[in-house]
Design goal:
The complex is a heterodimer. By secondary structure, chain A is α/β, with parallel strands linked by helices. Chain A contains 13 helices and 15 strands. In chain A, the strands form three sheets. In chain A, strands 2, 3, 4, 5, 6, 7, 8 and 13 form an eight-stranded mixed β-sheet that branches. In chain A, strands 10-12-11-14-15 form a five-stranded mixed β-sheet, sandwiched between helices. The chains are: A alpha/beta, B alpha/beta.
Chain lengths: 380, 303
């Protein structure tokens, strides 16, 4: 494990990072452009005593990952847009049963089959509201090879900490791009291990205990107690309930366990922002392009900085608000590889204070630095 | 001239030249034969599969007929809707044909297939079984043969479960016609397409699909390997009408499975000393499957 310098694709890095973060269960189904994650898992997981299962479809692979999580292992699945659509019902099930599980979406053009071999960022809203009902959401948007590794580790940590599904949103470019990376020793990583509840003498395990903070303790099967999991609204013991107060309290707690801890989850990169006049807001592979665009624009004498969220859900409201209220900036250019999704979130926070312009691209090619430069020169 | 024309199997081409399939692929050839018999009065329903690419880009689109490239999990359901609406408009002559791969048939599409079969939908379902998800990069499917290596059953291991008996599953729906076909036995294949066309209800054809990149074979040997699959009884040719089994081809002599497997790179590891038992197991399973099939044929007409 000592010398792990080499050329890796983003998909390979996600798989390696997952194993380093302690993932020992993977269930998946082939789909371009994420299949390499599954292929690496099929090779590497058995070597560390983990289980790799190729399931019969997308729905089944999400279900298996949830099932495995309740035996006490860290589990994961990966897919792309159409596969995530199929998994959607189970994502809601993971939310309401408060199951830690990591879901990778290597985004491609959509809707439907779309453009399987091309990058896109058109699933960012799906990661927030893809499944029905009120539910919390955590989604990370790594922007380069190194982050594909480290954000995967962070995704597992967040899933464990908040007992909820966590999305990693890559895209075809990040998934297939080869980069020279030196991987850390796994023992140097900060990893949140699951503390499986062990009851004191005579104590009963409540999988949805409201007396122990926002996140109830996670249990596992065959640890000296029985428990009940259901997709129905349930009480602290996990049994279905029609008690109005109980439903309200559990629903609100489920939302609040993320809302109350936004600051622990949110992560942004501010690039060239200190002396900038304008801000480019971009994430994922578009964020990487925006950084280069900022350099190119500075060469032309335009002081432009980049606000690049690495956590997209929960949305970095406070951090963006700070940027806007600072009064230092004259405008924001939001660049994303879709027809306008996150820009509405930026506008919601902005409340009309700064002019917001868009660069939206859905032609199957990535948003390039020159795209951003020319759009910037056009609008500002 | 007319005398010459009937010597060719295909009198009038219903496909365009320049299909986007790989060299030695079975898809282009099998659709060519199906289309030549069913004609242009046909809607093809294609779930995610290699054929969704082959029938794809304009200018290289393959077949003369309308195509619905639908979602992975629901080709038979889409076909059901098309059929029902056509019927209600009085168009009962049009053919509704599903062209699916083994992933879309054995795995993610099985529920939809079973639904359409048990409703007795009047459609023809064609499965090109090339034994893996070839389009996404050769991942295992439940049709992948025992012993094969794929990208999700990587070397030094290999697939250690037997493929699903899909013919058994489908024919258990008590459908009027199900048959296995081989591109090496083209007369038999064409007869089966005609029979399917002239039968009403849910009809199912499973074709042994050559795939040089996935099977690691020489593209020029696609047809010889398909023939060997039948000769070695790895892929017997038979048909099932309701529950009645009829074997269409009895190999004249016993050819060991090695003869077919050794030509395919995906089985290369089986010929190493340490994997000898796996080859024996495959032979034993193939023998027992064949005996079972012969018995099924025997009892089929006793009731």
């Amino acid at each position: 494990m000592s010398n792990r310098k080499g050329v890796y694709t983003g998909n390979e890095l996600i798989a390696i990072a997952a194993i380093d973060a302690g993932c020992r269960f993977y269930a998946g189904y082939p789909i371009t452009p994420s299949s390499e994650i599954m292929e690496v898992m099929s090779k590497e997981l058995p070597k560390v005593g983990g289980a790799f299962i190729q399931m019969e479809d997308e729905i089944a692979s999400m279900a298996a990952a949830i099932g495995a999580a309740w035996t006490g292992v860290k589990s994961m699945t990966a897919s792309s847009g159409p596969g995530i659509s199929l998994k959607s019902e189970h994502i809601g099930y993971a939310c309401i049963t408060e199951t830690p599980v990591v879901i990778v979406n290597i985004m491609r053009g959509g809707p439907s089959t779309g453009f399987p071999t091309a990058p896109s960022q058109s699933d960012v809203m799906q990661a927030r509201w893809g499944t029905h009902g009120d539910h919390p959401a955590i989604a990370l948007v790594p922007g380069n090879a190194k982050e594909m590794y480290y954000e995967t580790v962070r995704a597992f940590n967040l899933a464990e900490k908040f007992r909820t599904p966590v999305f990693i949103l890559g895209d075809e470019i990040l998934g297939h791009m080869n980069t020279m990376v030196e991987l850390p020793d796994p023992s140097d990583l900060d990893i949140v291990e699951r503390k499986i509840y062990s009851p004191k003498q005579g104590e009963k395990y409540k999988p949805f205990d409201m007396s122990k903070g926002d996140v109830p303790p996670m249990g596992a099967f065959f640890r000296g107690y029985r428990f009940h999991l259901t997709g129905l609204n349930h009480n602290e013991y996990g049994y279905p309930t029609i008690d109005r107060d109980m439903i309200k309290m559990q629903q609100e707690r489920m939302m609040k366990k993320v809302e109350n801890h936004v600051e622990e989850i949110v992560k942004n990169e501010l690039f060239n922002m200190d002396d900038a006049d304008y801000v480019i807001f971009a994430y994922g592979s578009t964020g990487a392009a925006a950084k280069l665009a900022s350099k190119m624009l500075r060469e032309k004498g335009k002081k432009v900085g980049v606000f690049r969220p690495i956590t997209i859900w929960p949305f970095p409201d406070r951090q963006i608000d700070e940027v806007i209220t600072s009064g230092k900036y004259k405008g924001i250019l939001v660049a994303e590889a879709n027809l306008g999704q996150i820009i509405y979130e930026v506008e919601r926070v902005n409340r009309g204070r700064l002019p917001i312009k868009d660069l939206l691209k859905v032609d199957g090619t990535p948003v390039s630095p020159t795209d951003i430069v020319s759009r910037f020169e056009e609008v500002f | 001239m007319a005398e010459l024309a009937h010597k060719f199997l295909i009198e009038e081409e219903k496909v365009y030249p320049g299909a986007l399939s790989c060299r030695g692929c079975g898809w282009a050839l099998l659709v060519r034969h199906i289309a030549s018999i069913l004609g242009e009065n046909t809607v093809y329903v294609v779930p995610a599969s290699c054929y969704s690419i082959i029938a794809g880009p304009f200018g290289l689109s393959h077949v003369r007929g309308s195509i619905v490239h639908t979602v992975f999990a629901a080709a038979p359901a889409t076909a059901t809707g098309i059929r029902a609406a056509l019927d209600r408009m009085g168009n009962r002559d049009a053919n509704v044909v599903v062209l699916a791969g083994d992933g879309g048939t054995f795995d993610i599409g099985l529920q939809s297939l079973s639904g359409a079969a048990s409703r007795g939908e009047n459609i023809i379902y064609v499965c090109n079984n090339n034994g893996a998800y070839m389009n996404t990069g050769i991942q295992t499917s439940t049709a992948t043969p025992y012993g094969a290596v794929t990208t999700t059953n990587p070397n030094p291991s290999y697939k250690k479960t037997w493929p699903k008996d899909l013919m058994g599953i489908v024919s258990s729906h008590n459908i009027p016609y199900a048959a296995t076909c081989s591109l090496a036995y083209i007369q038999d294949f064409r007869k089966k397409i005609e029979k399917a066309q002239n039968t009403k209800g849910f009809r199912f054809l499973m074709i042994d699909g050559p795939c040089p990149p996935g099977h690691k074979t020489d593209p020029s040997q696609s047809i010889s390997i398909a023939r060997l699959a039948v000769e070695t009884k790895l892929f017997p040719l038979f048909e099932v009408e309701h529950h009645r089994v009829k074997i269409n081809y009895f190999p004249k002599k016993d050819v060991p499975v090695e003869e077919c497997l050794k030509l395919q790179g995906r089985f290369r590891h089986l010929f190493k000393e340490e994997a000898k038992d796996a080859l024996k197991e495959i032979q034993a399973q193939v023998d027992s499957n064949w005996k079972r099939l012969v018995k099924l044929e025997e009892i089929s007409y006793q009731f």
